[in-house]
Amino acid sequence: MHAAPLQKKEQEKTEKKGAQKTEVKDMYMAAYQAYREGKTEESRELFMSVINDYPKNEYSDNARFWIAESYYKDENYEDAILAYEELFKQHPQSDKVPGAMLKQGLAFYALKDKKTGKTIPAHFIQEVVCKHKDTTVITANWGAAISKNPYLSFKFAGAAAGDTVSLSWVDNKGEKDSAEATIK
Questions:
Q1: Per mean pLDDT, which range of 122-126, 132-136, 161-165, 171-175 is the poorest?
Q2: Overall pTM surpassing 0.70 (yes/no)
Q3: I want to staple 140 with a disulfide (CB 3.0 to 4.6 A). Which of 68, 98, 128, 171 is the partner?
Q4: Number of C-beta neighbours around residue 40 at 10 A
Q5: Distances from the Cα of 179 to the Cαs of 9, 128, 156, in angstroms?
Q6: Quick one: 176 and 133 in the same domain?
Q7: Residue 118: pLDDT band with limits 50, 70, 90
Q8: What total of structural domains would you count in the chain?
């Protein structure tokens, strides 16, 4: 008697997974197309959506690789190095790792001071604090593996359209800055 409803539930789960898989693939392909068209910033945002919206999907390693490649293409070697490193950490068995290792080495080489041959020292954000109505909603402690122009995405309860969110950060040299944004 219960077999039919169970089969129906399993079929619904399978259909949902199939639809999600198609959605991830479409998002990934749109990101890759943007990269091929030279729209590197747009492609990075789309690849980040593939990773953030669908954390465990079959395109995650490729998305991380192409994020790194987009930074490299923009000659933003610091962020490329960090993005390749993220691929190594998150997907050490990926078939993209050997090519990423080569490109990371080339990015390090590109960063050398042309006069001295020494690598330029790191400069990175160490702490990010986000507040809503004077209440801390997130604190992120970062290190050298964070991008020069990081993309931060998070959700929290209790906010409404029109509210202001403030972000402040401190880098490894003690420099500080902040910004505000209005929730849409």
A1: 122-126
A2: no
A3: 128
A4: 19
A5: 47, 11, 18
A6: yes
A7: low
A8: 2
